[in-house]
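Predict structure. Chain length: 613.
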Amino acid sequence: MIIPRSSATSLASSFGPFGYVQNLAPGAIHNLVYAMPSSLMRPLTIVPLKIRNVARVAMLASSRTHAGFMWHNSCYQLTPANWRRILTLARPDYLLVESCGHDSLNAWPLFCHRREYADMMGAIADTARRAGVPSIFWHTLPADMVDIYIDAMRHFDVAACADAVALEKIAAAGIDCRPLPWGFAPEQFNQLHNSGKWQWAPMLLFDGIARMMRNAGIADILRMLAGDDLSIVDTSYLVPPYNIARCGDNVPGDAIKGCVSHDAIQELYKTATACLSLPESDGRMSPGPICQALEAAACRCPVLHCGRLDAPLLEDFCEIFTDAASLQARYRHLRANRLERDASAHKAWRAVHTRHTFSHRMRTIHEWLGLDTTHFKDLSASMVVPSMRPQNFASVLAMYDAQTYAPRELVYVFNGPPGLAPQMPDRPDIVFRAISPEYSTGTVMNAGTRAANGDIIFKCDDDDLYGPNYMLDRMILFTEFAIDVLSNATNFFTFGDSGQAVDIASENADGDNTVFCMGNAAYAMLKYTGGTVAMRKKHALRASFMGNAYAHEDVAQLLKGIFLTPTAVYAKVDGFNFCVVRNSVGSHTWAASHSEIMKLARSEPVPLESVFI
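Prediction complete.
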């Protein structure tokens, strides 16, 4: 399924029932329109999404929580008219109720300060219990809202919360509240974009106009950073220009861009140089800003946190600074060093996608309730290495063993001189095939593909460098999205024993992570792609490598697939954790000269170790 998340023409928006701004179709202009940022362009993003049905969940939750769960579960949204029938007749796997002001259908008057709220939740939880449906109450609001929901929470089988402060407060009230992992929906917040739709411009993004206006400490920090490409938006509250104009010098007015919808903020994360995370004046981090930091990192944006660290979770993916001056210096460094900015963003992206997605949250719920967890099984990967150089096998094996992605195997296909094949270790995760030297690399890859047992095929060269996270980074995308083929938008090259590397790219120098879907012929082939192609095995069997290709077999396979498999989805990723080793023309597969390669360099040489992150 191809879902356009937003487009440059969808500029109309309206108020949601809880004060947030939501996108409208261009034709719905008769609805209430509020000013969107005019200087922050939102590019077209087409993301291939994977719909999973791991459970049947009866939900009484906010639109944002429902939007995340719906890509993983069959969600039954409860209304005053249907909730008894759903719980008693549909018999969902569990009931999930969130502490929120409005449900995703805007059907319930969830005014939590009313006395009837706890009785209403009690009736729902009791009905679920009699029907044999376990119930979970998930507190997602700040700790100071616990007292309002505590009576309703007592009716449920399981109380859960991700915020440590709220957990302690709930426990103090005598409720056994379980810690639930923080999470975000990768279908909505991800690194994939079509970078050709905008021009990159430096931006330090802060989401929180309302927080700035009511918190003097936040306003002080933002005024200090106002000259550093600061752009201030708000996705949580409606702040009219009337209010902003009357704040005087207390806020950096020129940096305020306006309210942004939840659909649009993901695109701003992708265009930003960095995202700013700030605690309240007492150092606390409430759930909203923590989720914002998670989502920015998920979109491959560096997150810079200033102030006391109240939420240890942030250490996993944020850069932490004790004062604004240190953060300012770091931002200026990232702005001036695009490669280092990308490295910081990449590490944050990997951290949240491997540890903090909705899948981790749902796996925890399934373990609590004794539900099936096989839905969360990792895909398996096969590293297929065609080789005619037996002397390189030791380095290939070392590179394979260093990979951090666990369910994997090495498929080594030798088409060198007969009788000179290297000795294979006796291991179940190593597959060996020997092919006559008269056959081309394309035929060798087809033989390796047929011998592979993995869900994903990685084509790797035996004379290049692959970092320990090479497979992990790419398997994240294969796991989360319906992508058939991945290749690199950039490549790193190292020459001889220099200990340095340069990165080269196609004409669009900012083309990292560009997505082209469904046989789009505009998918630009790089002049030098190298052994960086990865694809689902079913696609590799359907669009096989060209049997007569001795060179550029990866490019030929990509072009063939694009034109002959029109429903396939292709994507480019950045080149971290892969580096081409280039010595002399005679000792390397590629015949390109040093000067020819250097014409495509994007930057000055960097230390080789900085490529492997």
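Summary: Confidence is low (pLDDT under 50) at residues 1-47, 507-528.
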